[in-house]
TrEMBL record:
It comes from the Bacteria. InterPro entries: Cro/C1-type_HTH. Residues 59-97 form the HTH cro/C1-type domain. This is Transcriptional regulator with XRE-family HTH domain. It comes from Flexivirga oryzae.
Amino acid sequence: MTWPVAGRSGNLSHGPGRPPREWTLIEDLRRCAGWLLWSRRMSSDLGLVPVKELAPVLESLGLSESQVSRVEHGKVDVPLRTIHSYERLLELPYGELQAPLLSLSRVVDDDLGRRWLQPSAVPEGRSGAIVDEIFDAEEAGAPITGAQWLRLAHAVATGVCDGVPTRLLFRWVRRLLSELMRGVNNGYFVRLEAASTVAAYDHTAPMVLRAVRELTAVPGVSGAYDAWAVVGDIRNPRLLDQLIEPLQTVPESTFRAFCAALSQPGFDQRLTTEQMRSICSACAARLPTAGHTTVEVVDRLIGWMPRSVTAAVREEIARIRPRTRRSDTSQDDRDLDAELAVYLRFATEAAWPGRPDGQLEALLRVVLLGEQFGQRMHTGSLLWVSPYAAALAEAAVFVASSDDFGAAAHDAAIYVLSRTVTADNEELLRSVLADTRRRDLRSACLMALGHISALRTEDDLRPYLCDSELRWTAIYVAGITHHPQLMSPEAESPDARWWQSVGPGCWE
C-alpha cells in the first residue's frame, strides 16, 4: 500500500534528496536524521496535511514550520529533543527514532553524533519518576519496555540514579542486558542503546562488565556477542585492560567476543599505544591457527589502529587469508547498480511511485557494500525503522532467489532481509520457506518468521530441528517465540535449555 501522500498534489516535501556523492560509509548524520523524520512523517496520515496546517500541533511540541522544513531536508543539525518531538508527533514510543540514530552515531565520526551522546542532550532523564516506574514494575513482576529502559539509562547518564542502592541498580543493569540478549526488532534497538548509555557511565560501567561475564558464561547462551559489544562502550581503561590481558589464552569464542568489545574503543581512539601493542601481540599469536571468522574479526579490530602498531598482524593476515577466505563471494563481477535498482524499484512502487528517494539509495549502498560492520548494522536498523522496511525485505527475497545475481549479492540480500523484515512479509516468507531448496535462504526465512513473531503453535519445527544446518535457527526462533516444540526431544540441547530458563524474546 503506497503512502497516503502519494495521491496528494501541490508543494510537497521530498526529504534531503541524493547526497553530493555516493556513500559506502555514513558521511552526514543530519541527513540521516532528517531523512528518517521526513519519511516517517510523510508516510503517515500527517503527510496529507500541509505543514502550515500543522502549526498549532508543532508549536505544542516545540517545533515550528520553518524548523521542520530545514530539519527534514538535512540543512541543520537535529537536537535529540527534536527527534523526541517527532516521536510524540507520530505517537511513537520513547526512543523508537532516537535509539537507532544514537547507536549509529557511536560508529560515525561526526560532531552531531558526539553532541547527541552528551548527557546534557537527552530529552528526558532529569526526573526520578522512571526510577519509581522500574521499581514498581519489578516488584509487581510486570514487563519493562525498551522505552522505559532507555529513559532509565538517560536518568543514569544525568546522575539521577547515583543514589539508588548499588545492589538494586546492578540488578536492573543485569536484567536490561539479559533482555537485550533476547531483544527483537525495536525491543532490541532501544535496549541496545540503553545498555550502551549505561556502559559509558563510570558509575555503572563495572556493573555492565560483571553482568555480561555472568550472563554469557551459561552453556547454550544466545546473544553473547551483543552483550560483549556493549562492553566496548565502557570508557574506563582499567576495565578494558581486563579484556586485553587474557586475549592470548581465552577460548576462541571468548576471544572473538573480546575483540567485538574492543572494536568500539579502537574506533573512538580510546586505546593507549601500550594497549594496542598488547592486542596486536595476542592477535598475531592466535592467527596461524585461526579460521575465517576470527581472521575477519581481527581485521576489523586492527583497522582503527595505526599501521606502525599493526604491521606484523597485517602481514600475518595477508599470508593466511587465501587459506580462510570463502572462494564463492568475490566482489569482482558484482553489479551493484543492478542490485540497487531492484531495491529502489520495490521501495518506490510500495511507497511513492514516481518519486525515487536518493537518500535511501545512499543508505542502501552502506548496507550492501559497506565494510564497516557497525555502520552497516546500524544503518540496517534505520531501514527497519523507516517506512520502506517491508518493501526492502521483499526486494531482498527477490535478489536472494534470483539466478541473475551472484553469491555476493545473495549474501547481501539475506543480510538486508534480516535487517528489514516486518509482519507484512509473512505470506512471502512462508511461500519461499516451503519452496526453496537453498539452505541459506531457508534459514533466513525461518529466522525472519521468528523475528516477526509469526510462528504459530501448529507450525511444525521438527524438520528444521532435525536438520543439522538449520537446527540452531530452529531452536532460536522456538526460543524467542516460546514455541511448544522448544520442549520437544528434538530440541533437547544446552541452547534450548537456556531459552527455557530465560523466557521468550523481548519485542516491546
